[in-house]
Amino acid sequence: MRLKHFDLVVVAAIVVSSPMAPGIIDGAISATTAVTRFLIALVVCAAGGEVLQRVVSGYADQARRTQILRQLAEARQLAEGNQAGGAPAGRPMSAEPDDTAPPRGFPPQPTGGPTPPGGARP
């Protein structure tokens, strides 16, 4: 599996290796030692990120699978209700549109009440 957020791995490696910054500034730690330590931190953080990603994606796959199975069960129940001649659960089937909701894309029509500031109604 490919690591999705390598930028977070680099940030974590910088944070992990940041305690050696004063030693680098003072000259107590050489540049080669600092680079080696940073590369080791980068590899360790990449391995940790990979493990974390696998755990999270495993739980996400399981949740996705459960949701799909639930939706399939609901669809089966709905299909069985339609085959039995009954109306599906939830909203009754009707050939006519729902007249209580305004049509999409149109503003609601004024129903009365006080005149808006500025004069007449649209």
Textual characterization of the structure:
The chain is mainly alpha-helical. It contains three helices and no strands. The protein is elongated. It has helices at 6-17, 21-26, 31-83. The model has no long low-confidence stretch (mean pLDDT 80).
Could you list the spans in which at least 5 consecutive residues all have pLDDT below 50? none
Radius of gyration: 31 Å
Strand composition percent: under 5%
What percent of the residues sit in helical stretches (DSSP H or I)?
Answer: 55-70%
Approximate shape: elongated
Number of helices: 3
SS-based structural class?
mainly alpha
Number of strands: 0
How confident is the prediction overall: mean pLDDT? 80
- Span from first to last CA? 60 Å
Largest sheet: none
What is the string of SSEs from the N terminus onward?
A: HHH
Tags for this model:
single chain, 122 residues, mainly alpha, 0% strand
Short structural summary:
This protein is an all-alpha fold. It is 58% helix and 0% strand.
What does the secondary structure layout of this molecule look like, with pairings?
Blueprint: H1 6-17, H2 21-26, H3 31-83
